[in-house]
Amino acid sequence: MLGALTLLLVFQLVGEVTARAFALPIPGPVIGMALLFLTLVVRGGAGDDLRQTAGTLLQHLSLLFVPAGTGIVLYGSRIADEWLPLGVALVGSTALAIAVTALVLNALTRRRAAAGIDEERRS
Q1: Helices marked H in the chain
Q2: Residues 19, 31: contact at Cβ < 8 Å?
Q3: pTM recorded for the entire structure
């Protein structure tokens, strides 16, 4: 577990250094997550230790929202001042996520149906 946590933190650090070195508008942890994803794709997947550690972290995901909740309380007046753009962004991103999910599900369903038809023809 210690090795997997170290791996996760190293990728976050690399992402943070990359974001600051190149003054990128993308948060460092997002860059680190993308780099970790690419590494796992090249390696062929996560090991058992990393999988178990990530599962444990996901079980306690609600604890990671405490800082976000604190930020909402801290910047409540600013959020109240800019409620319209925030609301539009929230509703728009939710609608976009639902549309993309529906399109992906539709494509996967068609692909699976086509694969099932091919298997029936073979047998």
Answers
A1: 2-21, 28-43, 48-59, 66-74, 76-81, 83-122
A2: yes
A3: 0.55
Cα atoms in the Cβ-side hemisphere of radius 13 Å centred on 5 = 5
The alpha carbon dihedral of 101, 106, 107, 109 has a sign of: positive
Q: Return the pLDDT at 71.
A: 81
Q: Do the beta carbons of residue 46 and residue 28 sit within 8 Å?
A: no
Dihedral over Cα of 62, 68, 72, 74: its sign: positive
C-alpha span between 19 and 31 (Å, rounded)? 7
Q: How many CB atoms lie within 10 A of CB 86?
A: 13
* pLDDT at res. 63: 82
